[in-house]
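In response to the reviewer comment on reproducibility (Comment 2.3), we provide here a single inverse folding case reported in full, input and output, so that an independent group could reproduce the run without further information from us. The structure tokens appear first.
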């Protein structure tokens, strides 16, 4: 299994879901864009995946560990401020529904998303965007 395959599964599913919104919402990925989508009047999503655990130890010394990826996914939704919470909450809901349905997808990667946290809204500071974060742990095997 490769990290790229797992990343591609999450990126494809979430991008498809956000592109289906009206109007479509652009998704930025880890280490691809140097800056978020330009313009303080735009809305966008930043998708972040991390892989803190990759091998489970096993009892037998003759065998190697079992490859089981434990990761975390974070979807950060941004909308311009002073437009109310509706669009921000719609974007967060899209992320939650997509992550919840990932466990039912059939592909070469078996991924299961755990308890989804959020949406956690951040409205402090003087940034031009309001932020809502949806996050969840996941396991994957392929």
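Designed residues, in position order:
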């Amino acid at each position: 299994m490769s990290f790229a395959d797992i990343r591609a599964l999450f990126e494809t599913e979430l991008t498809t879901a956000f592109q289906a919104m009206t109007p479509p919402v652009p998704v930025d990925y880890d280490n691809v864009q140097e800056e978020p989508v330009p313009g303080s009047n735009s809305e966008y999503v930043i998708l972040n995946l991390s892989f803190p655990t990759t091998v489970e130890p096993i009892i037998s010394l003759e065998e190697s560990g079992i490859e089981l990826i434990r990761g975390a996914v974070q979807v950060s939704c941004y909308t311009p401020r002073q437009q109310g919470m509706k669009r921000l909450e719609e974007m967060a809901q899209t992320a939650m529904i997509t992550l919840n349905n990932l466990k039912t997808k059939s592909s070469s990667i078996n991924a299961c998303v755990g308890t989804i946290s959020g949406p956690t809204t951040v409205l402090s500071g003087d940034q031009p965007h309001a932020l809502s974060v949806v996050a969840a742990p996941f396991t994957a095997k392929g």
